[in-house]
Amino acid sequence: MTTPADRASTHAHFILDTIQPEDRHALDGLLDHLLNGVAYCRMEYRNGRPHDFRYLYTNTAFRTLTGLADVVGRLVSEVIPGVQESDAGLFEIYGRVARGGDPETFVTYLKALNQWLSISVYCPKPDHFVALFDVITERKKAEIALEERARQLRFVLEGSELGFWDWDVVSGKVERNPRWGQILGYTFEELQHTAQQWSDFVHPDDRERAWASVFDALEGRTAAHKLEYRMLHKDGSIRWILDQAKVMQRDENGKGIRMCGTHTDITERKLLEEELRRQAHIDYLTGVHNRRHFMERAEQELSRAHRYGSPLSMLMLDIDHFKQINDRYGHKVGDIVLKAVADLCHATFRDVDILGRLGGEEFAVLLPETDQHFAVDAAERLRETITNARIPLAEGLPVTFSVSIGVSSLSSPDDNIDVLLSLADKALYAAKESGRNRVCGAGG
Known about the structure:
- The chain is of the alpha+beta class and 444 residues long.
- The chain has helices at 4-17, 24-31, 60-66, 76-79, 83-86, 88-98, 137-158, 178-183, 195-201, 204-218, 267-281, 291-308, 322-329, 331-348, 372-387, 417-433, and strands spanning 37-46, 49-58, 104-110, 115-122, 128-135, 163-168, 173-176, 225-232, 238-250, 256-265, 312-319, 354-359, 362-368, 403-409, 439-441.
- The protein folds into three domains: 4-135, Beta-Lactamase, CATH 3.30.450; 155-271, PAS domain (Beta-Lactamase, 2-Layer Sandwich), CATH 3.30.450.20; 282-441, 2-Layer Sandwich (Alpha-Beta Plaits).
């Protein structure tokens, strides 16, 4: 299964390998829509080893993410003095790839810039490499903070009371301490000292695997029972429990006859993990899929469409004269307009349609089970809805705006998401060239 970084690398490979001088302006515009930083470089060697590299091209995101400007034509050692010593491992990877090695994807801490980067690098021609990257410093800080929080939580739990249980398998009796019940909202007096009561409290969707884990330990197939699962609280809510236990006594046949364990309430940790996963997939401003997650979802739908021979269409839309909105009303109003576009898309399209923000004021929508004709109709409905929208201001007249939309559809078993995006982007360009505030279909 390909990763988003693999697909981004393949996409850039296609772009840079097919570059023509007359297309350079269009290429710059396309690459500048990417949220990824892009750097095209030539590796310099000394005594057969990678020593330095010279920047031949960078996009806007490169300059925004790194803070480095006017680097084209310069050596990285000139741009970032001392980088060869502080980040020697980076040169080893770039040098290896530039000499025709396989593309590589890795995460690294760049000491010279004090940034964490997720990088994909490949070789378009001998002694050259293209690096696509994201700055993931905030995400790494969040991961470190989460790890620190989990470590602190462990210390707290070690010093606090845990829900304890002791099961006599032969008699079926289970002894529990008061904390075991309190986690689920019950008093000690309300507890029935049976394994059945525990089973009844386990969420129905998790019950089978919880019992399976217990029996694996009892039968000796695993050294211990350790499982995270959901339990039902007295108030009807869900609690995530970390259940850990070992068999303390076995019969002459090796079967467990006594098992002891503890329950730890990990609900807060689970919710935090879920929030971090959500943030990794969502554009923070508009609440729609970010570019990476949109591409993941789109690849899944493309695979399904190819498998079943289903139609599939792609829309790319761009807010007309968005820079003028920012210049006239300020970026705060510009952000409101971006959110409004996302909301109007959600209101116009189906739940199965996939909406993503590709960057800046550009959005994409994937329409499963939709051919070109119906996709154009849907795009027209959206265009008209947005044209009639009014964004109220505290003072003055409401803000009005429009969008241009390009439409492409699956037409060949060889089509991939990059092809659909490219065709939709060309149709979007045609819509803008023909006056904006209109819909154009690929090939139409």
